[in-house]
Amino acid sequence: METKKFDIAVIGAGPGGYVAAIKASQLGKKVVLIEKEYMGGTCLNVGCIPTKTLIANAHIMQSIKHAADFGITTGPVSFDYSKMKQRKDSVVEKMRKSLEGLVKSNGITIMQGHAEFVSPTELKVRGEENAMICFDKVIIASGSAPLDIPAFPCDHQKVLNSSSILQLTTLPKTLAIVGGGYIGCEFASLYAELGVNVIILEALPMILAPQGKTISDVMTRAFIKKGIDVQTGVFVEGIDHVAEGVSIRLKGKDPIVCDIALIAVGRKIISEGMALEKTGLKIGDRGVINVNDKMETSVPGIYAIGDVTGKYMLAHVASHQGIVAAANACGKSASMHYEAVPAVIFTSPEVAMVGMTSEQALEAGMTVAIGKFPFQALGKSVATGETEGFAQIITNKQTGQILGAQVIGHDAASLIAEIALAIANELTVDCIADTIHAHPTLPEAWLEAALLATDTPIHLPPKVKKV
């Protein structure tokens, strides 16, 4: 077996791993990027990109259905889901090839295979090419996979997970989604817009619980309006195959029969199978590799980034961690900060958030001021017919510091960036209010929300003061 020497080895070519590899190469290091499956990892192949491609298809169809509202006449609207799936596959393939070219253009060696540690400075790679890799530093970016529940394991035929459901070429008539978190809600929104009868089964008292009650309540109402059956506080005991499809057994309730079931109860960290014990590295709860703010593990020269660290299971967080890890591995100094991590849920309407919710700020003992501006009072939203939702800023009433923000509505994913920048730079609500926002645009909602948070509204009536 051939032995190859590198300055930096990166295990996993997802959004954390490939970014780390590029950063290390930019800093003058000889880098190898090892991936056992596909370039781009979960995000590009069975996560962010394919799901958002399908969601884009559904949004186009919905826009055409509402064309008459804009004085546009169309004929009957129909769709071919198999062609939607083909488009999704072609988008993924195109981006994967582009990413591979980008990595190679940075002088990085790509190895396809499974990596196992032999020592803290050696890896054995088995795959298309078998080799021993010697390195000075290593960055582990092994990611995560859909969580499988022993009581109702996925067979990828009738009981699917978030990866295998993307391989469907025809739509079911009825779909039960076990789990009302962001993954379950994105799929619920997508398939409901395509005419599937969707049932959400969530064990907690509300869907999207980590995002707070305000977002949960708004999304629940929106889902019910779309015909989605939202059932909370229900416990799934098992799933049986029946002639009609599957029968979902619920604790204390009648079973639910549907065509297929999607299991969306979370993701498991991938840290097994790499022989990490040979490095002296101890694995934490749930398979987490613990790191400090420099992405260093307890073993010198070994770094970890992305889902495997158990911090935030978000592609953009993994990418930023990759930059920090690579900088430190190359002798620079960089640290991670998690106060301003934006997150987006690509439902219809979209949801985006950053920083604290009002509940979290109150629990921290802060005096909170909230500015909440509805899109139905925003000129651009009325002009485009996208009036559902609101933009909300959470501030410290005593200091004016922006603590967090939530936005529900059209293009929420883009809107959240302004407040993420504000929180990252510790700006106050007055900084937003004093910034000229172009008119007519959606970001004006932040200006109006900031004014509301300081009790100086312009485009909403003032609050009636109690005598």
Describe this entry's structure for a reader.
By secondary structure, this protein is an alpha/beta fold. The chain has three domains: 2-146 and 269-329, FAD/NAD(P)-binding domain; 159-265, FAD/NAD(P)-binding domain; 343-453, FAD/NAD-linked reductase, C-terminal dimerisation domain (Enolase-like, domain 1), CATH 3.30.390. Helix content is 30%, strand content 25%. The chain has twelve helices and 21 strands. The protein has helices at residues 17-26, 41-46, 48-65, 81-105, 182-193, 213-225, 315-329, 358-363, 379-384, 412-424, 429-433, 444-453, and strands spanning 2-11, 31-35, 109-119, 122-127, 131-140, 144-146, 159-160, 174-178, 197-202, 229-232, 236-242, 245-250, 256-258, 260-263, 267-269, 302-304, 343-345, 351-355, 368-374, 389-396, 402-409. The strands form five sheets. It has a five-stranded mixed barrel. A hairpin with a 2-residue loop joins strand 3 (109-119) and strand 4 (122-127). Helix 1 (17-26) runs parallel beside helix 7 and helix 3 runs parallel beside helix 5. The chain is globular and about 75 Å long. The model has no long low-confidence stretch (mean pLDDT 96).
